[in-house]
Amino acid sequence: MSQSVLSLKNVTIYQEGKSILTEVNLEVNHGEFLYIIGKTGSGKSSLMKTLYADLPLTEGEGNIVDFDLASLKEDDIPFLRRKIGIVFQDFKLLPDRTVNDNMLFVLKATGWINNVDMQHKIEEVLNKVGMKDFGKKMPHQLSGGEQQRVAIARALLNDPELILADEPTGNLDPQTSAEVLEVLKKINANGKTIIMATHDYALLMKFPSKTLKCEDAKIFEVIQQRTV
């Protein structure tokens, strides 16, 4: 039976005191792949930021991976984010250390201690995204697509229940974007729930899935028609 990993009821999302999205009602079950689309400024990123508690939920009910967003305390935010993998448009890799050391930084920061366990985990997640031979590379030695694969691997380190990908292909060319989507789809096929904000409609046509659209301060489901 499907189990909800995200539930929003009658939520209004605010950014700097201004309401961005109103009457948001959303249920995402374990194993789903969900697109959130909309123009720049339509509320996609504000919604994503609310889900990983970068913006507080001040109106409505929200539950994500068993955390109540409305009553979430600041001390609880790191624990929430350990159960959520976050992939950003601009990769956010630490430029002064190797791929392996980027991974080590996250593991140590989230409480891992055993060096052998950490090395095994790093190899495991890099292998999942096709980057197992790139651990000694510096970020600047990688292409944009390779950096985003590393960022996806980083998001998998703590075996999250949910991955939030905020415009993960926004800085990539169409072919590389499709390759990154294939990685995310494969991860989803192995049981991970993924919510991806994007404005790239070509990807939606190539990799169709359930889609919600942000428009006129509302969010609603749209029905895709796949082109032949």
Q: What is the tally of beta strands?
A: 10
The radius of gyration is 17 Å
In what order do the strands lie side by side in the largest sheet?
A: 6-7-8-3-9-10
By secondary-structure content and strand pairing, the structural class works out as alpha/beta
Gap between N and C termini: 33 Å
Order of helices and strands: EEEHEEHEHHHEHEHEE
Task: Report low-confidence residues grouped into runs of 5 or more.
Answer: none
How much helix, percentage-wise, in residues? 25-40%
Biggest beta-sheet profile? 6 strands, mixed
CATH architecture: 3-Layer(aba) Sandwich
Average the pLDDT over all residues and give the rounded result. Answer: 93
CATH fold node name: Rossmann fold
Report strand %. 25-35%
**CATH superfamily membership:** P-loop containing nucleotide triphosphate hydrolases
General shape: globular
| Total helical segments | 7
Give the count of structural domains. 1
**At the first level of CATH, what is the class?**
Alpha Beta
